[in-house]
Automatic annotation (TrEMBL):
<keyword id="KW-0408">Iron</keyword>
<keyword id="KW-0249">Electron transport</keyword>
<dbReference type="InterPro" id="IPR024934">
    <property type="entry name" value="Rubredoxin-like_dom"/>
</dbReference>
<dbReference type="InterPro" id="IPR050526">
    <property type="entry name" value="Rubredoxin_ET"/>
</dbReference>
<feature type="domain" description="Rubredoxin-like">
    <location>
        <begin position="3"/>
        <end position="54"/>
    </location>
</feature>
<dbReference type="InterPro" id="IPR024922">
    <property type="entry name" value="Rubredoxin"/>
</dbReference>
<dbReference type="InterPro" id="IPR018527">
    <property type="entry name" value="Rubredoxin_Fe_BS"/>
</dbReference>
<dbReference type="Pfam" id="PF00301">
    <property type="entry name" value="Rubredoxin"/>
</dbReference>
<keyword id="KW-0479">Metal-binding</keyword>
<keyword id="KW-0813">Transport</keyword>
<comment type="similarity">
    <text>Belongs to the rubredoxin family.</text>
</comment>
<protein>
    <recommendedName>
        <fullName>Rubredoxin</fullName>
    </recommendedName>
</protein>
<dbReference type="InterPro" id="IPR024935">
    <property type="entry name" value="Rubredoxin_dom"/>
</dbReference>
Amino acid sequence: MEYKTLMCLICGWIYDEEQGLPQDGIPAGTKWEDVPLNWTCPECGARKDDFDMVPM
């Protein structure tokens, strides 16, 4: 399975689909499109719209 990595354009925080964010209720392997729309960056509170895919 191909996982993506996305970065917050405001603070630089990284979301890795393979790792998910279990402490926020997002299990490992959760695709970006399956992250809830009301989710916000844990570092700065930015919305999903403020993230962009980054090559790793």
